[in-house]
């Protein structure tokens, strides 16, 4: 193996992070990226992401992209308010004032960036010849001259390693395991409040260039500021199965129709604060409905020479701890180290990749457990958020504390959550 020949399936933020890291730290590697989208901006990619100090930001620093990231990062976007349906504030995290400040979140900084901007930043940092846009992968398979990837027209083989980074329904994962993501009992609708400062100034003021999360029993409304001045409005709620929201006969509305969706959502938030209802009423453009899926907590796959997984392909989870893309970018950084340490030794590469997969499963299980705990606390606790706060803060405190301090952290988190649950602050608008 004079130099590793690596295929990355998926040009999302995680796949592009790995490619960029290889470009910087393993310049002799041959890298090909297969991506079904025809360009980085081909489709809607959701709202914004907050990158974390020890994971997403660490990967960007290793990739030599922090200066470029800082052109788009919004440190004031760290502002987070967690409220009930009457906009009583239970948690208010203040934003950082600068990139070198410690940040107001446990675990360090969490600057925001719009998801499409992050993907474009990463994709633009790669040699143009590396990415095969519009390649709709049919399957991956072992071959006599190395692992191969096939679309509807041809097979490309000879790879020392194929990395599945193509999300929840990964075809690379299917050659390693029969395990599929399961429905997480939740759907959400995404709307867009354009030019919010002008069209809904009171909503804009309440969001304060960051995020406002509004919880009630079995549902949640999020308002998140974007870099272009818009606010992404999402409504999450429990639904019996993953076909319900796409079947008008069952749910009673067309989830792709903006007016019908807004009418249905207004019924769900009819007892919410006027600002929440205003954000929905004044949204324009498209309406997008999606289901949430998750792999089992602690999912592992048996090692197979020539294949591995990163990102959602390895550990798709719901977004309620804000960890998904950060864990995926950490995956990319750890896999880079495994590849680099192997040098030109094919057997060592295989051994390193096997060890990487085993370590990833353990590391990702912590995040998946936290995320699923947050899902259960927020959506399956009566009298949310008041009664959910002790559970949530206990979990977060335990997660971010050293092992010996975890019991104390959990106790303090529970106590603070109980206090805030009974004595919230009123929002000022």
UniProtKB/TrEMBL annotation:
Keyword Flavoprotein on entry: yes
UniProt xrefs under SUPFAM superfamilies: FAD/NAD(P)-binding domain (SSF51905)
InterPro entries: FAD-bd, FAD/NAD-bd_sf
UniProt-recorded name of the protein: FAD-binding domain-containing protein
Organism, as annotated: Coniella lustricola
GO MF term set: FAD binding; monooxygenase activity
Swiss-Prot/TrEMBL keywords: FAD, Flavoprotein, Monooxygenase, Oxidoreductase
PANTHER family linked: FAD DEPENDENT OXIDOREDUCTASE DOMAIN-CONTAINING PROTEIN, MONOOXYGENASE ASQM-RELATED
Domain named FAD-binding: residues: 6-342
Top-level taxonomic group: Eukaryota
């Amino acid at each position: 193996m004079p130099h590793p020949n690596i295929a990355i399936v998926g040009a999302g933020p995680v796949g592009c992070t790995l490619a960029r890291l290889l470009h910087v730290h393993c310049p002799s590697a041959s890298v090909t990226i297969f991506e079904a989208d025809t360009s980085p901006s081909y489709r809607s990619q959701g709202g914004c992401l907050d990158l974390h100090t020890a994971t997403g930001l660490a990967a960007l620093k290793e990739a030599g992209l922090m200066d470029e990231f800082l052109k788009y990062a919004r440190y004031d976007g760290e502002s987070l308010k967690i409220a009930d349906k009457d906009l009583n504030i239970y948690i208010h995290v203040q934003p950082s004032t600068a990139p070198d400040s410690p940040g107001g979140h446990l675990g360090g900084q969490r600057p925001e960036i719009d998801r499409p901007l992050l993907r474009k930043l990463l994709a633009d940092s790669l040699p143009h010849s590396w990415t095969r846009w519009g390649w709709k992968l049919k399957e991956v398979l072992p071959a006599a001259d190395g692992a191969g990837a096939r679309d509807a027209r041809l097979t490309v083989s000879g790879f020392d390693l194929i990395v599945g980074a193509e999300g929840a329904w990964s075809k690379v994962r299917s050659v390693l395991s029969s395990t599929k993501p399961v429905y997480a009992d939740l759907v959400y609708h995404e709307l867009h409040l354009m030019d919010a400062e002008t069209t809904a100034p009171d909503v804009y003021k309440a969001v304060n260039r960051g995020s406002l999360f509004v919880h009630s029993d079995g549902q949640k409304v999020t308002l998140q500021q974007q870099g272009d001045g818009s606010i992404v409005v999402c409504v999450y709620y429990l639904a019996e199965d993953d076909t319900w929201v796409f079947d008008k006969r069952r749910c009673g509305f067309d989830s792709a129709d903006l007016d019908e969706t807004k009418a249905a959502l207004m019924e769900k938030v009819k007892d919410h604060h006027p600002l929440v209802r205003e954000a929905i009423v004044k949204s324009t453009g498209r309406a997008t409905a999606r289901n949430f899926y998750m792999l089992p907590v602690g999912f592992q796959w048996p090692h197979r020479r020539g294949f591995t997984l990163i990102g959602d392909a390895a550990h798709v989870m719901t977004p309620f701890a804000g960890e998904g893309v950060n864990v995926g970018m950490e995956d990319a950084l750890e896999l880079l180290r495994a590849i680099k340490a192997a040098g030109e030794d094919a057997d060592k590469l295989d051994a390193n990749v096997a060890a990487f997969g085993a370590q990833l499963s353990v590391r990702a299980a912590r995040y998946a457990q936290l995320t699923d705990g947050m899902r259960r606390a927020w959506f399956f606790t009566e009298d949310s958020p008041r009664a959910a706060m002790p559970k949530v803060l206990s979990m977060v405190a335990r997660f971010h504390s050293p092992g010996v301090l975890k019991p104390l952290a959990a106790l303090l988190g529970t106590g603070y959550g109980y206090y805030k649950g009974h004595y919230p602050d009123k929002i000022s608008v």
